[in-house]
Amino acid sequence: MVVPNLKEAMKRSKENGKVQTIHYVLEEELKGIAKGKRYFIKTYGCQMNEHDSENIKALLEELGFSQIDCMEEADLILLNTCAIRENAHNKVFGFLGRIKNIKEKRPHVIAGISGCMAQEEVVVNEILKKYNYIDLVFGTHNIHRLPQLLSAVLSKKESQIEVFSKEGDILENMPFKRDSKYKAWVNIMYGCDKFCTYCIVPYTRGRQRSRKKEDILEEVNSLKKQGYKEVTLLGQNVNAYGKDLEEKYRMEDLLLDVSKTGIERIRFVTSHPWDFTDKMIEVISTCENIMPYIHLPLQSGSNTILKLMGRRYTKEEYLTLFHKLKEKIPNVSITTDIIVGFPNETEEDFLETLQVVEECKYDSAFTFIFSPRVGTPAAKMEDTISKEVKEERLQRLNERINYYSKCANESYKGKIVKVLIEGVSEKDEDKVMGYTETMKLVNVKADKATIGNIIDVKITDVKTWSMDGEAV
Ligand code: 5AD
Ligand code: SF4
């Protein structure tokens, strides 16, 4: 048993030499050991976690498992968890009750927990104490160990808990069972060294480690060959890509090289305002296949709160960057993340956030109430603001965010835009759906044969969260 250790997870050593690249290979004798067995997986959290699940699915299928959507019939139930806020955490613990019921009826079922919550010392301690029917716990640093851990659970019939609390390695040659045939996530870096005071990610995902450009470009080229139309370069803070590499090769260089592969659409998430260079802006504005869409988390519009959050920029610096992006990148759409109710956020602080929203008129935003996470500095800050006040601020904020989302969508009415058609619309089976270059969801009247293609769509109607259109 290897359990997570918060102190270890907080460590950052000076030398980069500690980052190892491991080439994953599945041992022959493990192939097919779970033939005939079925797995159910539920994923919480961000794109990084979604992509980890694509990795986990491929590993399970190499062992012989096949995927099913009905949890009650599965032989393995796996929750790939998120730790970012308390509600994500509570949802997982709520789900464990359902798993317990299933295990009472079908004791052979293997129940597993992976992902960011598995990296938390408090969570694993709670599992050990109260949820002893969980058979398998592994963290974000141990995904490649899943075959061995499952093999041990299957043969020894005893639980396996293995969570490394390390700064992290880079895994190459990992298989993925991708959710889409047209758009793909590509990891360009792992972990984060920014340590914003509210955020658990640097503890659950380790130090910043950039993948080598050769490995990234090879993956993009291979995806293009397989017919993928879009790649999203993934990292907790992609703008800092390359800062930990020996070679002087940064995000702008990577974007340019990925653009040269000729893949039709390139996106990247998430950008921290701190590392956004002029060169990056130039590359984004000049390369046609880099999409004009930027997710630029603000978090707060008050300099006092930004300082307490350890964000390393002021409201003024953020706004300067925002306007530069709008000016230099034609038709760019910018979205953001905002936290309200950070410890001791005053009404004045909150009004400053609202003022930034009025000025930036974001295309859309994810908004949250601050949630204290064990081990982070903000969780130790005393807080005198009531829950009611925080909820009321969130509502006021959302009202303005939704207003501007609708306004941004209104400007598309009657226009012809390019949409990558991904599949059948969830709203209307007779329609297809996809996203514009600027990341707007469109339900389109078009033939199903358009699925997998980028087509011209005339926007006929707009709502707050989506638009309607027809193929032209
Ligand atoms: N409480 C509330 N929101 C948080 N986020 C990150 N940590 C917390 C927290 N402790 C939000 C930030 C981040 C997004 C992914 O989640 O806005 O950008
Ligand atoms: Fe993603 Fe952060 Fe949630 Fe982990 S804690 S799954 S990195 S959002």
List the helices and strands and how they pair.
Layout: H1 6-10, E1 21-23, E2 38-43, H2 47-62, E3 66-67, E4 76-81, H3 86-105, E5 110-115, H4 121-130, E6 136-138, H5 146-156, E7 160-162, E8 170-172, E9 183-187, E10 189-190, H6 201-204, E11 209-210, H7 213-225, E12 230-234, H8 251-260, E13 265-269, H9 278-286, E14 293-295, H10 303-309, H11 315-328, E15 333-340, H12 347-360, E16 364-369, H13 387-410, E17 416-424, E18 432-436, E19 441-445, E20 454-462, E21 467-471
Parallel strand pairs: 1-8, 2-3, 2-4, 4-5, 5-6, 6-7, 9-12, 12-13, 14-15, 15-16, 19-21
Antiparallel strand pairs: 10-11, 17-18, 17-20, 18-19, 20-21
Helix pairs in contact: 8-9, 12-13
Keywords:
about 475 residues; alpha/beta; six-stranded parallel beta sheet; binds 5'-deoxyadenosine
